[in-house]
Every structure is written in structure tokens, then in C-alpha cells.
């Protein structure tokens, strides 16, 4: 995030001031925060509380059966999944489904556990249209997609592998299966989603391979608001679904996709940054914040929910009319923290070359002092070279990679033992990997909520 980028706008108030080295705090704590792990959903065996939740029951219920007020008008029977020989009536919104207990009992589901509970001679919901089991929180279309998976024939199920597979249906199946503990069906749907997203002929994310537009070399410009909103919601939905269901392969696929799409438009970096904060996605936080820090001028959204310097900004906009990224105060603090800590890390590294142990052959046949001095001279020269200085002061990774390339060109140094040159090359690469792994920690401090 170079200073020139931040001097392009004139904020009207301190609150809307873009992040810049010129207005960063005098000091920012440098204590590294504890590693942030992704939030995990603990799936345990079915309990009576879970069954009550499925039935819409709460602790304040005054009767054995919960009373959920249906929608206005009489519920109607579904055209596809109200079977005359069905044995259990469900109501979703204002629609009735009459399905089979044996089907609902598959996969050790929550329904199976409910059916096994002793009834004590009391009438139970689900026995008729007048007494259906109400399923609050579900939508008719997504529940129909779920029932489709339970009742579909093999050749119908194979349609999910087609290039134009119905991704919305698969998402609905996965979500409802997760809710009611159909674990095998949930995994099947998530695997199918992962396969669909990874298809080379998949059209849903084909735009991600397009060449990004730039306003300056290496600086991505915002894409259109319509293009972003057409795809941002789908991306968010799939990331949240993968995280909710702990499906590591789909989550890894979506994270990799978001990383690629950051180069297509800065809004996607903002989306990745927001999802990383919301879901505690460590694997996404570092690269997302670094992308925003280096490629965007930002403005803080004020307490009224709008960017104070841009009256035309809408509530869900992430870029204002001047092309600046709209961030929250917490995100601005993390960006400032990251900038400070990355620059401090580079300054420390610049003055203290990466240490390494000399090879045994160096001590036996070489002058270690000359070998060490050769390494120090290289480090001093290259850390001040043009290829390094042209990069942002906070681009710790970029500068280290530039030094690695310079070392490969310098590999025939006269006064450094060959085995020590190999060791030095290895420690540079190890340092790059260490920075990549710890990158999220540069943008979050101990005591800051993720």
C-alpha cells in the first residue's frame, strides 16, 4: 500500500480518512495474536433438544406439542411429494408433504430418532393433514429438492454430473440434509458441488479465468457492481455451506477460487476479507487483507451505515463512486496493524540477514569467515537493490521472493562455499514459506475478535 495511492483522495473527516502510512497510529502493538482456527460445527449424537428444535419447540412451550401458526389460508398439498400411500405428513410454509417414514428414517437421521421416542399413548403430529408436523425455518422449494434426492431414481441422480447440473438443488439438498442429520446425503451433495465447481466446462465461474482490467500496472480495478452482485452471493453461500458442514475439500476449492478471483476485481478481495473475519478462516485472512492493503485505497463506513464522503453509496456497496473500498472500522484497524507489522518485520530482516549453519565441508576446506562475509555482502546489496525497493515497503513476501531470484542469479559467488550456497538458498525459501504461513497473524492482534 504505497503512499501515493492514499494521497489521491481528500477525506472530509477523520473518520473517513483513507488508510495511509501518513495517518497510521504512532504505535501499534506488535504482539502476535494466537493462531485463529476455522470455526467448527460439532456434530454429536441426536438429543431430545435437537428433536424439539426440529419440531419448533422451545422451553416456554406450555403443551407437549408445539403450536406454530401456519401461513394465511389453508395449506395445500404438494403436487409431487404428497403420496396417497404416504405415512407421515409434513408442513413447510403453507405446503403439505405426505411421505414415508421409512424414507425419512434413512441415514440415522433426526427423523429416525424422533420416531423411536416413546409416545406414551399421546397423539403425535404428522398423522394427518389436520395434524401435520410443522417444520419451521425451511422453504418449500429447498425441501422439495431434498425430497427429490430421497426419492430419485439412479438415472435421475446421475444428472448431477452433467455440465449444466442444478447447483441450487445441490445446495438445498446439502443444507436440509445437514439440518436433519442425513450425513451420507449431505456428503454426497457437497462432493457433487465440489465436482461441479471444479469442472473445466462449468459456466458458473467461467468469468474468473478472464484477464483482469487494470488502471495501473499490477493494480486491479473494481469490476461492475452488477457483475459482482451476480456472483458474490453464490460464492458466499458456498463458502458458508462448506464451513458449516466441515467439508474440507469444498472449502479448499472455494478458498482457492476466491484467491484467483481477487485479481479480477478488488470487490472479491473485500468479500474474501469479510468471509475470513466472519468464519475465522485463517487460510483466507492473510492473503485477502494483503491484497486489499496493496491494491486499494479504502474509506471507512461511518456509523450511519453509509460512506460519509459518498452520498450515492448504497448500503450493500463495497466500492464508492471514487473507486475506494468501503471497509468497517475493525477492518481498517486490521489493515493498519498489518501494514505496521509487515514493515517492521522487513526492517528487522533487512538489518539482520537470515542465519544458516555452514556445511561441514566448508569448515574443512574453506575459510568460514570469508563465506559468511560473502553472504552478508550479498544481503546488504540486494536488500537495497532496485528490484526490492520498487516494491511496497509492506510487501514482505514480494521482497523476499525478489531476493530469492537475485540469489539464483548470484549463485556462482566466488567467496562462498558451494554447499553453503545451497543451504542459503534453502533458508530463503523456508523464510518465504514461514511468512506465508504466518501472514494471517500480521492482521490480527491478541484481544481483537476475528
From TrEMBL:
Determine the domain of life of the protein's source: Eukaryota
- The ranges of region (Disordered) come to 1-50
Enumerate the Gene3D superfamilies for this protein. Answer: Potassium Channel Kv1.1, Chain A
- Biased amino acid composition, Polar residues: 1-10, 21-33
Record-annotated BTB domain positions:
86-159
Q: Which protein are we looking at?
A: BTB domain-containing protein
Q: Which organism is it from?
A: Somion occarium
Amino acid at each position: 500500500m504505497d503512499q501515493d495511492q492514499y494521497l489521491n483522495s481528500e477525506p472530509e473527516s477523520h473518520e473517513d480518512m483513507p488508510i495511509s502510512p501518513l495517518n497510521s497510529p504512532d504505535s501499534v502493538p506488535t504482539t502476535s495474536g494466537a493462531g485463529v482456527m476455522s470455526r467448527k460445527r460439532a456434530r454429536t449424537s441426536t438429543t431430545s433438544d435437537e428433536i424439539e428444535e426440529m419440531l419448533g419447540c422451545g422451553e416456554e412451550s406450555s403443551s407437549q406439542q408445539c403450536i406454530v401458526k401456519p401461513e394465511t389460508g389453508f395449506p395445500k398439498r404438494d403436487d409431487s411429494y404428497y403420496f396417497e400411500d404416504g405415512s407421515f405428513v409434513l408442513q413447510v410454509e403453507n405446503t403439505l408433504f405426505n411421505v414415508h417414514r421409512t424414507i425419512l428414517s434413512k441415514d440415522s437421521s433426526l427423523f429416525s430418532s424422533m420416531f423411536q421416542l416413546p409416545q406414551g399413548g399421546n397423539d403425535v403430529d404428522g398423522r394427518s393433514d389436520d395434524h401435520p408436523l410443522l417444520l419451521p425455518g425451511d422453504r418449500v422449494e429447498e425441501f422439495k429438492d431434498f425430497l427429490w434426492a430421497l426419492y430419485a431414481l439412479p438415472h435421475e441422480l446421475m444428472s448431477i454430473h452433467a455440465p449444466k447440473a442444478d447447483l441450487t438443488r445441490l445446495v438445498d439438498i446439502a443444507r436440509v440434509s445437514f439440518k436433519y442429520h442425513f450425513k451420507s446425503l449431505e456428503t454426497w451433495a457437497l462432493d457433487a458441488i465440489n465436482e461441479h465447481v471444479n469442472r473445466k466446462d462449468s459456466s458458473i465461474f467461467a468469468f474468473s479465468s478472464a484477464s483482469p482490467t487494470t488502471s495501473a500496472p499490477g493494480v486491479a480495478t473494481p469490476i461492475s457492481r452488477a457483475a459482482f452482485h451476480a456472483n458474490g452471493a453464490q460464492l458466499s453461500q458456498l463458502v458458508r455451506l462448506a464451513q458449516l458442514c466441515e467439508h474440507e475439500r469444498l472449502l479448499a476449492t472455494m478458498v482457492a477460487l476466491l484467491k484467483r478471483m481477487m485479481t479480477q476485481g478488488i470487490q472479491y478481495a473485500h468479500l474474501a476479507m469479510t468471509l475470513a473475519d466472519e468464519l475465522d478462516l485463517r487460510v483466507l485472512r492473510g492473503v485477502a487483507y494483503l491484497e486489499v492493503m496493496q491494491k486499494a485505497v479504502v474509506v471507512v463506513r461511518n456509523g450511519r451505515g453509509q460512506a460519509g464522503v459518498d452520498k450515492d453509496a448504497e448500503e450493500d456497496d463495497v466500492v464508492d463512486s471514487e473507486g475506494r473500498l468501503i471497509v468497517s472500522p475493525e477492518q481498517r484497524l486490521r489493515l493498519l496493524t498489518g501494514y505496521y507489522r509487515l514493515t517492521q518485520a522487513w526492517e528487522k530482516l533487512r538489518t539482520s540477514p537470515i542465519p544458516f549453519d555452514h556445511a561441514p565441508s566448508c569448515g574443512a576446506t574453506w575459510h568460514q569467515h570469508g563465506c559468511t562475509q560473502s553472504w552478508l555482502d550479498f544481503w546488504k546489496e540486494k536488500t537495497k537493490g532496485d528490484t526490492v525497493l520498487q516494491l511496497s515497503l509492506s510487501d514482505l513476501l514480494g521482497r523476499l521472493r525478489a531476493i530469492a531470484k537475485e540469489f539464483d542469479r548470484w549463485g556462482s559467488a566466488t567467496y562462498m562455499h558451494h554447499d553453503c550456497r545451497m543451504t542459503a538458498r534453502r533458508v530463503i525459501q523456508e523464510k518465504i514459506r514461514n511468512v506465508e504461513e504466518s501472514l494471517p497473524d500480521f492482521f490480527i492482534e491478541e484481544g481483537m475478535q476475528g
